[in-house]
Design goal:
The structure is a single chain. By secondary structure, this protein is α/β, with parallel strands linked by helices. It is built from 10 helices and 12 strands. It has a single domain (63-357), classed as Spore Coat Polysaccharide Biosynthesis Protein SpsA, Chain A (Alpha-Beta Complex). It has helices at residues 4-27, 29-33, 84-97, 120-128, 145-148, 157-160, 259-269, 281-288, 311-316, 334-357; strands at 63-69, 110-114, 132-135, 174-178, 182-184, 200-201, 219-220, 222-226, 248-255, 298-299, 305-306, 320-322. The strands form 3 sheets. It has a 7-stranded mixed beta sheet, sandwiched between helices. It comes from Pseudovirgaria hyperparasitica. This is Nucleotide-diphospho-sugar transferase. One of its GO terms (molecular function) is transferase activity. The chain crosses the membrane at residues 9-27.
Amino acid sequence: MAHPANTRFLYISAGFFLVLIVLLLTHHRDELAQHVTLPFKADSNTFDSSENQYPLKNPEEKVAFATWYSSTVNENGDNWQDDVYFTATRMLAYQLLHDPKTKTRNNIPFIILCTPDVSEARRARLAKDGATIHPVDWLTPNTDWMQKSGGAQRETWHDIMSKLHVYELTDYSRVLLIDGDTLLQSPLDQIFDDPMAQLMQTNNDPELTKDDEAPLPEKYLLASTAEVEGPDHSFPPTDEEVRNPDYFCAGFFMLAPSKEMYEHVVSVMNIEDRFSPLYMEQNLLNYVHRRDGPMPWTGLDRTWNIRDLNENDLDGGVVSAHMKWWEEPLSHHQKVKDWFLAVRWKMEGYYQGYDELKGKFPKYIPATTPPAPRATMVPSSNSRLFRL
């Protein structure tokens, strides 16, 4: 078995040389074009549309990938190497935007909702990695009922609800919200074509609605998957192998942003004991989208995402996994552990290569073309506008 340090070096080297190759291809793209056909354009972060194996049925629709990041989950200050959640978020950005095996083929942006405690330096790093930084404010109930209930014991309870600001991304018709501790095996683009990931008509039957909650939107979307019971399951998991087929995981779900939907979920958050605060935003959303309510959630194909990953899931072709890369997987499968570390060190190598090599070929690398990613940052009262 290879020594961990040697494995780490190999993956960093692979990422570094991937950047070097792309830079050289950009430098010599005209000459190369006369001799070889590349599966990607040397001056673009996207695959040539003629070679796109993941086309969307409606390529003009504005959709997005998004995640949520808060520094309250980190105890390491500005020591980025030891901040596992920050590293996980960078890994997700790398896989969604840059990794040749997993990146978007349809220019789908990756938005990171950042709470006020995320430093400017970290925001700048994530923007440099290619993400669009969207600052959000804290979102907490207007009373302390969640604390009094005894359910919200985690220190992060007061900011996790800020994930709900994703409903304010109304520039996009649909958004896939992905927890930062998620890894990919292949592109997620075509999840937007999943039959269960389409907008639904709200059922306004008075028997299903409650007068103390804000009005419902005319249409809605909440598509997700139920969590498996543990690592011993088939692929894809069956109804018998999930904890509760009527309860979804809020670490991976599709939604339709709207002002009405945002106001509705916030109104529910402020009603004492309307839902159990044990899992906070997950229980809130499961209440709002209960199967016997006016906006029942729909189940995505379980090949899109899974928790409690095992090697059979990897071999079967699961697209993504909601797993903490720095922890021992419940399956204890070496193949799963190797995959976690491979993604981490490929990411490190890619960005290290880009950081060290950028500027050495300024004549041949336009500022707007990755692998020198053009990043934007949405302006807010507590953040500067970044253009990298």
